[in-house]
Specification:
alpha/beta; 4 domains
Amino acid sequence: MIEIDGSQGEGGGQILRTALALSLVTQQPFTLANIRAKRSKPGLMRQHLACVQAAVAVGGGETQSHAIAQGGGPVGLGSSHLVFQPGPVQGGDFTFAVGSAGSCMLVLQTVLWPLVMAAQPSNLVLQGGTHNPMAPSFSFLQHVAPFFVGQGSAFFSMTLQRHGFYPAGGGEVHVRVQPPSDGLAAVELMERGDLIEARAEALHAGIPRSVAERELGVLQRALGWRDDQLHDRGLRSNEGPGNALQVILRYQHITEVVTAYGEKGVGAEEVARKVLTEVKDYMAHQAPVGEHLADQLMIPAALAALQGKTCQYWATTLSEHSRTNARVIEAFLPVTFDMAPWKEGYLVRTSKA
């Protein structure tokens, strides 16, 4: 039984998701105390409970995989302690609904790697938020998916059926997971290569179009981009209300996605300036891997390392979120993360312990 303190490091929901995923991969049970202890509302929220329920489902359902709360009762909203017993993972058809505007992309994070390591392909229907603050968006995962596989073949693809913004939710994403027949390839991302494409997209539903125009105008004036690099993507009004401004920078060897979200009381110009700051910071650097992708790459790099493949990537920075993620991964897998400052960024190397 692996014991994990959920208050360590950044103390958020990533500890839970990584533990669930790797428990299913390794078939090792774990206890998790102090769940999300450093958040303003500790314990399981709806999207985290959905992650637990999804992990139970892909582990053969409650007859083989189960989660119980402290004291032996069922895990529910607000639970701060759980014991998880994994069951054998089999691919198949699954539908997971968060039941709120909580991110269904976080549910995907939980079950993706166990299903990638399964013997059979899977089809997932995910319902909930698709573009949320504090979570990877559908757009982000869609663009960075190829970089999880090193030089191997892509093992999952995503189709957006309906956008889901906070606070309404209601989004839907279909995911096809095809486990690689020859195992995971080594992840090595050490250079960007030439810039191939740079564009901005303002997604908006149920709000005035002028909001998107103002956001894109800020980016155009600051970056000197052409009109054909700016895309006003008006969505169906019943997909909102919601607004996301995202910049996609596609290089020869990497793609970076920067996103900010409109919210009540925050001006369009402020949303655009937030994106602009991150874009300028990234473009001024040479490292290929941005802060958020550096975190997302850790599990696939560790699983590839477990198969004897040394992985490395150069990141612009490493957040406490990433460092905490590495420590949880090392609790489940006989791998080590070497994270050292290198060329105004960080060099992350993963190898079998």
